[in-house]
Amino acid sequence: MKILITGGAGFIGSHITGHLLQNGHEVICLDSFDEYYDPVIKRQNIESFLSFDNFTLIEGDITDQLLLQDAME
Is pTM, for the whole model, over 0.85? Predict the structure, then answer.
């Protein structure tokens, strides 16, 4: 299954992402890496996922309609 997770680099999102990846799902992580939640921590949360073939990281904001539409296609 292909799954889009918004906020996928945050605490909860990264744990969900890790679980889904380990169970063989394709995960698209959309995250804005804004300053509200330290971007350094967020990047550490997903660092181990970058080597997964079934993981895609999209950096951007969920309010960007074109970006969100592209992520969902």
Answer: yes
